[in-house]
Fold these 2 entries.
Entry 1:
Amino acid sequence: MDKKRETIARQGQPLASPYDRLTQYMEEKAMRKTPERYEILRVASLAEGIFTIDALMQLMNEHAKFQVSRATLFNTMELFCDAGLVIKHPLAIAAHYEMRTDCNPKAYVICRQCNTIARVSASTARLALQNLHVRYFNIEDKLVYMHGLCRKCQAKNRQEARKKQKQIKQDKIKNGKR
Ligand SMILES: [Zn+2]
């Protein structure tokens, strides 16, 4: 295990600054330290919570010193994932990302109806996952996804069910009159 992963694996401790981690990663890989990569990292750090490439593109339009293409954003996020700077959520819908600022366990809820993804409180995730260990496996991130229905969709479904019931009743009355 290389040094970078070792530092990442230490749970509960804050990680070094994302800039330092990016620099270290690019030096290790003998990559060019382009200003674009640092600028994308700066702007991505402005995102609150989980974001998509579209949302990041929007942030770049608003805050970046210079614009980059969508393809560059995609490739850079892949690089950030490899560098351990970003968490990529492997969802069926468009890829979602999140800045990786610590190694604490994280839990998410995903709505099967509207596909929204939201983070569960850090304390809940910690409680549920802190004692989870797998033999002979070095866990770098503890991420749990829970699928179900969000509050909005539950309310929407209830409303639609009520409407349907009402319609059935009205139809019965109508048919009875005939
Ligand atoms: Zn929903």
Entry 2:
Amino acid sequence: MKKRSILRRGVAASIALLIILWTSSAAIAQMDRGPKTEKTFGIGLPRDHASQLFADKDYPVFPLKPGQEAYKDIDGARMKKDVIALSQIALHYRDTVNKQWWGRFPGTDADRAGMKYMTDEFTRLGLKVESFPYILARDWRPQSWNASYTTSKGNKIELATAFPVSGTKGTGPDGVTAEALWVGIGAEPDFLGRDVKGKAVIIYSTFVPGGRSHSASDRAGLFNANARAQELGAAMVINVMAVPGNGQFQPEGGLRNIPQITISQDEGFALRDRLGAGEKVIFTLHLNVPELANVQTAWTMATLPGASDEQIVIMTHTDGYFQAATDNNSGMAGTLELARHYATMPQVQRPRTMVFIQFPDHHHGEVARGRKDVGIDATYNWSKVALKLTMEHPSETLLYMYNSNLTATNQMSSSRWNAFGSAEFERMAFEQLRDFGVSVYGVEDGPKNGNYAPSFHIINHVVYHTSLDTPDLVPAEGMSRSVRAFASIIDHVIIDHVNRMTIAQLRGPNFPPKDERGTILGAIGEQSSGSQSVTLAPK
Ligand SMILES: [Zn+2]
């Protein structure tokens, strides 16, 4: 009896501990106030998060329709716990390894912990898990930096939100010092009559639509402002990111010949006002980026056997910047939830084998996905693959800018999407998204992770690659809607009912289609409106 009561106490204590751990992790892995800046402008994030963000319970629910009951077990709240747990790993890396450049990067303890989180769950569900170690030849990872400026009125400002852009040039120990020059959005006429040689060129850059593509970048193809400044001899480029508040931004694709950093709108507007008042401003930047070579990491594969050797392949990247809540904790959570959903079924109810592939270097060269003999590339037996899904950022809160303010809604953002295969497949995928409450927008890109098989993805991409990428902006309701729709798409491919599609039907007659974008706004738009098809600029 004594033993049992000790055991009971032990169980009670560990349950209490679990509850404490869970509540505290839920409390920690959310948005904080962010770096303190000298001045603030309008309502902004992350600093005003407490008054701007809705809780999960305040999002409208899109109820299941009759016939969709099979997807009730796909649970947004459970996936939200995964999102938070994965954020915790990144926060732990920030607090123990590098408080400036943090997230889950290949070869780090955080990489291994995030991957283990996935493989532990696959193992628990009874999937066969395999790990494939490989070496990433190099990676770009700054050790430390600081940015500050002095003004002719005697102020010295340390920039609390300065953040280097991945791949940019380090400064060496002496740093770079240069006079600031504001060139607006940095379009060609903004540079006329301005001598940027040797200057710290400041360019205001808007999200198009998010943390990666921004208006000053080459990627956006709008103004090519950053490249122009470099070409004309600037000493460094500072992008003031047009997002109200004190966020930090890592848009990737940094300038190679000179250093490039981003700063928040709060700090950028303070700078604007000083320059506008005629003050002379001198910038100093130190950016220490040691060489990093031979990074040891691993990609993984988890297999859930079906009744045939035809496959459904689900690909997920496990690396991410900052907390990485939407990019890509939300994708990882969705992947686990699909595994949970299908692992409970008898094998005969899964006509195709499900293969879950996780790779840790999406933002670091995608070696695991593309390099021959390392990972998954054209040499994989794609002829057996009925459908390839990429799980990337399936849920994000819709944000609005309102004059000088930024505020969150209690609604999901629409997703960029692509269904690559036959028109019939594309229409089926679109209709499943629609019927589960997932909105999409029209600029469809090509398939993610190669055009080897009929492919499908949706992707949200506003707050990713920023310090706003926290679980608060990954609504549980969005996770439910998206992942239920994905399962329904898989079932239209694998379940033997009227809607079942064969590999030939999924591919269509001329696979792979030359235009990698889908036809929804073409063929389907034509049918519904009777007008000519809409041609969108490829991106
Ligand atoms: Zn991603």
